[in-house]
């Protein structure tokens, strides 16, 4: 298949592109490079620099005999989405509508969408499954949910076939070390821990140690980007013969902030200095999910998402003294 990957130079997108190419697909990347990384653009992919807000550009790109679109181009910082919703409505909502409309114009009917656990909001039970109520608590999560709703309409009205993949906490770098361009402006726990381990930051904050968890710190379900990437390839192939679907991509296992810090200290050999500060608004104590549906539909399972593998793959790119095995 010839697949357009929007955001294909980004952190998750570059891993998806690599897997698509390894699976024998042709790839066109569309990326505005606001968060993309030049070193991570696959040599075998055709690269178009441009934004999903540029409708003329999208028209040109979709005219390249594209069979399917994997749409990752979006902003994803939940905190920022609450102070600058316009940035998120423009890029995430308008950008996605433009992509879908360009697809309809060129009769491209297969769409894999990068959705998020943020559609669920506070978990009402654990592990979260796909039947869990969707009540986002940040604007970012709302944009992902609104797009999912729109996909249902386009499916009904226009015959679109889509996969909505709800990622839990994406983490790690390519386990083979091929993609080593660092994520720009990372805001999540694991890259912050790596920045302290590598000396880029002196210390970090732990947002609360009084949660009702084993050590008082927050527990999350970390999923390796290589595992996320393989699900996109399987989803695309599944949609050739089957109907639209929405699934979680997670492991069902949870690690606390303290687990992450201790494991990162063991791998890096460096002490990670931290301060305990107040809880961050909007953070649940624990968020883990089941991916039973992804397993049943796609025969997908996480293979690289134990904490040691995730953190080792990150230390490979963050280690200031070079590659680490
Ligand atoms: N944390 C800290 N210190 C930090 C950063 C994070 O203690 O400096 C803690 C948080 O309180 C939380 C855990 O580490 O307990 C993970 O926090 P992240 O910010 O890495 O991730 P979140 O779980 O808050 O959210 C992430 C994405 C969301 C996405 C969600 C899906 O940022 O966009 O995962 O589960 F929706």
Annotation keywords:
single chain; 325 residues; alpha/beta; Rossmann fold; UDP-galactose 4-epimerase, domain 1; 2 domains; seven-stranded parallel beta sheet; three-stranded mixed beta sheet; globular; binds uridine-5'-diphosphate-4-deoxy-4-fluoro-alpha-D-galactose
Q: In words, what does this structure look like?
A:
The mean pLDDT is 96. The protein has helices at 11-22, 55-62, 78-83, 85-105, 139-158, 189-197, 225-239, 257-268, 292-298, 307-318; strands spanning 2-6, 26-31, 46-49, 68-71, 110-116, 161-167, 169-171, 204-207, 219-220, 222-224, 245-249, 255-256, 274-277, 286-287. It is of the alpha/beta class. The chain has two domains: 2-171 and 222-249, 3-Layer(aba) Sandwich (Rossmann fold); 189-220 and 252-318, UDP-galactose 4-epimerase, domain 1, CATH 3.90.25. Bound molecules: uridine-5'-diphosphate-4-deoxy-4-fluoro-alpha-D-galactose (UFG). Uridine-5'-diphosphate-4-deoxy-4-fluoro-alpha-D-galactose binds next to helix 6 and strand 8.
Brief digest:
The chain is built from ten helices and 14 strands.
Topology, element by element:
Elements: E1 2-6, H1 11-22, E2 26-31, E3 46-49, H2 55-62, E4 68-71, H3 78-83, H4 85-105, E5 110-116, H5 139-158, E6 161-167, E7 169-171, H6 189-197, E8 204-207, E9 219-220, E10 222-224, H7 225-239, E11 245-249, E12 255-256, H8 257-268, E13 274-277, E14 286-287, H9 292-298, H10 307-318
Parallel strand pairs: 1-2, 1-4, 2-3, 4-5, 5-6, 6-11, 7-10, 8-13, 9-14
Antiparallel strand pairs: 9-12
The structure holds uridine-5'-diphosphate-4-deoxy-4-fluoro-alpha-D-galactose.
Uridine-5'-diphosphate-4-deoxy-4-fluoro-alpha-D-galactose is lined by residues 76, 78, 116-118, 168-169, 188-189, 192, 204-207, 218, 220, 257, 280, 283, 287.
